[in-house]
Amino acid sequence: VFTRKFTAMPLSFQKLTLSGMFSDNVTQVLQKLGYRLGKCIGEGSYCKVRVTERLLPDNSLQKLACKVISRKKASLDFVNKFLPRELALIKDLSHPNIVKIEKILEIGDGVYIFMELGEKGDLLDYVKNKGPLQETRAQLYFSQLISAVRYLHTQDISHRDLKCENVLIFSDNTVKLTDFGFARKCIDAESRKRILSQTYCGSAAYAAPEILQGIPYNPKMYDVWSLGCILYIML
Length: 235
Prior knowledge:
- By secondary structure, this protein is α+β, with helices and mostly antiparallel strands.
- The chain contains 6 helices and 11 strands.
- It has a 7-stranded mixed sheet, covered by helices on one side. It has a two-stranded antiparallel ribbon with strand order 8-11.
- Helix 4 runs antiparallel to helix 6 (219-234).
- Mean pLDDT is 89; it is low at 1-11.
């Protein structure tokens, strides 16, 4: 038996408390809310991404992706620092080349982030399967990525994990950024001064020299370096 306790949260956030936290209970809660989790399309040490179907009011089905994060498996640093920061940032993002978040549910020890599904997978798999992009397609995709990163930077947000795996390809020939697990604000809210980052983030193949050297760095400049790495891989 499970009980549901809703806490008012901004926009698409809902926090549910379950008594007797079992996977069957979670499945029942999700189904009551109109969500059915499907096959796993990505997996990390403490999270999985699953194809999801959402039942709409007209009884049609909407295909989504759901990032399922396990607090039990994650490090304390991630649970206490990076996860709250990610949830706070992604709910306010709105750009045609950033994956749209449909809903965020916190159920027991799990966090379920429902978002747009990139029908054609990520950019790295695309390059692996089809080889380098033609210049015109690379130019199209890269201009969209620049637009997304410019938007983030005008909001004083740095992604800090730009890589081909975090660029999803959609059937309408657009690409969108996803996975804001390392994103952070670049400006202090009170002083309005720039904040230098000291945390090692992202992947070594996309990391700027200062990150690899372990010295404080400008997170926006890190994003720009990583964009250059993505362009190199595309071509």
